[in-house]
Amino acid sequence: MLTVDFDRLGIGPGTRVIDVGCGAGRHAFEAYRRGADVVAFDRDEPALAEVETMFAAMAAEGEAPEGARATTVAGDALALPYPEASFDCVIASEILEHVPEDERAIAELVRVTRPGGTVAVTVPRWLPERVCWLLSDAYHQVEGGHVRIYRGDELRTKLRAAGLRPVAGEHAHALHSPYWWLKCAVGTDNDDHPLVKAYHRVLVWDLLHAPWPTRLAERVLDPVLGKSLAVYSVKDPPAPSTRERGRNAAEGGEVAVAAD
């Protein structure tokens, strides 16, 4: 289940991508399928071992174009082990709500993005998330759980402050909001509840078959009930200094004189 719209990001052969907080690897796998040079980055080493196994299986089955590369790296999102401008695209899906120092994490995402590169950030949307918090303390008061609920304007403000220019946003996974409300109402660990099991079967069926009725329903409901907010941003190149602008103007004048 993808939360990021890859068509917006223009990821293709040779694109350098890092999926920060990759989890089970769903976005890293899609970047690999599109031919990217992708790093799946997370602090959960057992999860990364499974992602590495999947990368190998994809390569063996020819699911990635020739020349695509994929690797896993364990580490801390607050101190990414890469120099500045290392990646064309940075993905951070559903991780910032877990990080107490979110502004520091955002700064790292921006630092490793090249000028002109893109950053895709997704977080739980305010309204569906607020309902979950009201229904269940266990939903978020767990080790590694959610530490904040973002409003869209708040997230965009933090992205701008770190040097990004948000250019698009959307909501996703409307059909998942009622599922999580139901789980919160009956107990987040009560996976055997008949309503939870039935709803889960529907979500799995939808994921595997993508029938048009549920796809249409989700498109209609996403603006209202979408579980996730996705914000797409660009890291603009730094503005030229006064000295550089003067030099460029002088060089332009010299070219004009030569042309005469």
UniProtKB/TrEMBL annotation:
One of its GO terms (molecular function) is S-adenosylmethionine-dependent methyltransferase activity. InterPro entries: Methyltransf_11 (IPR013216), SAM-dependent_MTases_sf (IPR029063). It comes from the Bacteria. Pfam families: Methyltransf_11. Gene3D superfamilies: Vaccinia Virus protein VP39 (3.40.50.150). Keywords: Methyltransferase, Transferase. Residues 236-260 are annotated as: Disordered. Residues 18-120 form the Methyltransferase type domain. Residues 249-260 have a biased composition (Low complexity). One of its GO terms (biological process) is methylation. This is Methyltransferase family protein. It comes from Prauserella rugosa.
